[in-house]
């Protein structure tokens, strides 16, 4: 019972934003190959199957993991990505958010918080989240981890911080640097 109460208290504090957990770095390092995946996704409330390999054919991909739709930090991050979508598009990049939430919840999140500007994918089993070393220990949710993946499938930027600050700016800087690389 004590363990349950301690875990419940930790979850409540972590989701409220009062607790900040900042890993030193994302587990998948720059230069490593990004694991391919497909997943149910939603863009503007319209469901489809997202496939990373297909997205990479059109340019770099910003892949970001977030703990749970409609929580404070995740809403802030979704708004910041939505505001920056024109900048990412100008660089030829697409953005996909991934959480362990069910697709019906993400249908709503994609409209209200992502403002129908980018897709969010459901990883209810955590398989994708684990393959990107973005799963929180003991909890059924992702950590806040962002990657920029070059069209050749290699990771050119990784950043992990439970704070939503800097994920968008770091990802955009990496996409811009990638475009300038011959």
Summarize the SSE layout with pairings.
Blueprint: H1 2-16, E1 38-43, E2 46-51, H2 52-56, E3 61-65, H3 72-90, E4 94-99, H4 103-112, E5 119-122, H5 127-131, E6 145-149, E7 155-160, H6 167-180
Parallel strand pairs: 3-4, 4-5
Antiparallel strand pairs: 1-2, 1-5, 3-6, 6-7
Structure description:
The longest helix has 19 residues, at about 70-90. It is built from 6 helices and 7 strands; from the N terminus they run H-E-E-H-E-H-E-H-E-H-E-E-H. The protein is of the alpha/beta class. The N and C termini lie far apart (about 60 Å). It has helices at about 1-15, 50-55, 70-90, 105-110, 125-130, 165-180; strands at about 40-45, 45-50, 60-65, 95-100, 120, 145-150, 155-160.
């Amino acid at each position: 019972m004590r363990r349950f109460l301690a875990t419940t208290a930790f979850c409540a504090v972590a989701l409220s934003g009062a607790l900040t957990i900042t890993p030193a770095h994302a587990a998948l390092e720059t230069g490593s190959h990004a694991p391919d995946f497909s997943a149910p996704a939603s863009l503007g409330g319209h469901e489809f199957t997202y496939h990373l390999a297909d997205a990479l054919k059109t340019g770099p991909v910003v892949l970001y993991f977030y703990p749970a739709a409609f929580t404070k930090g995740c809403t802030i991050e979704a708004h910041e990505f939505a505001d920056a979508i024109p900048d990412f598009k100008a660089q030829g990049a697409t953005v996909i958010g991934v959480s362990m939430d069910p697709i019906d919840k993400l249908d709503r999140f994609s409209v209200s918080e992502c403002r129908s500007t980018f897709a969010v994918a459901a990883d209810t089993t955590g398989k994708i989240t684990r393959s990107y070393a973005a799963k929180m220990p003991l909890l059924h949710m992702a950590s806040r981890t962002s990657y920029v993946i070059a069209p050749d499938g290699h990771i050119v930027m990784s950043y992990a911080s439970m704070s939503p600050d800097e994920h968008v700016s770091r990802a955009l800087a990496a996409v811009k640097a990638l475009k300038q690389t011959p």
